[in-house]
Write the structure tokens for this entry.
Amino acid sequence: MSDQLPRLGGLPEPEKYERLVERVPGLWWSDAGPFAGLHELNAVRVEYFRGVFNGFGGKRVLDVGCGGGILAEALATEGARVTGIDPSERSLTAARDHAQRAGLAIDYRRGTAEDLKAAALETYDLVFAVDVLEHVDDLDRTLAGVAAALAPGGGLGFLTHNRTIAGFLQVVWDEEYVQHTMPEGFHDFQRFITPAELTEKLARNDMVVQEMKGIARGSDGTGRRILTDDLSITYLGWALRTR
């Protein structure tokens, strides 16, 4: 697989996904390749969010940076009314095609969270920003847009990477340059976000973090993801919109 992966360093973030989907058709829903691990990760994050948000059934949900629809489909399967936005048209095409084959009604739209504040004509009970905050050009505008789309009392579910030496070594160095499970240049380490930074920026937008948990691979040899109290590499959590 590694010889098929394009080098993505220096490209604008949306173009990285366009280039990758063009080079590796079907990668969003393949059981091999760069995004195969997202399906393993998705099981853990859906279970976590299901618990903290008391299920998804009947709730209006926005999936920011939905990509090929991995999270969106899981939420829709459990009864959520899902809208997904993403700037990558090729990813959205994959998402729409797969949802149609799965018989799921998901409203996929091209766009970014940075534009939500100006364009927000509707609000949602839950907003998810997973594997996307470390790829946006303007984190402050992104979080302002998320806040504008989130109804008062609504919940935000997030997942991102910590800007630590450990985060660099695992997410960038090992995955992109040693194991070659991800394309070189896919992640920009300078865009990684510490938990303290994210907590402060969310609070500025009336979203109060309730909990954060780390994600690691279990020690049973299967590579299965587990939750941990170690936030040094990848972490997820949730926040409430207070007003």
Remarks:
- The two ends are 47 Å apart (CA to CA).
- The first strand starts at residue 60 and ends at 64.
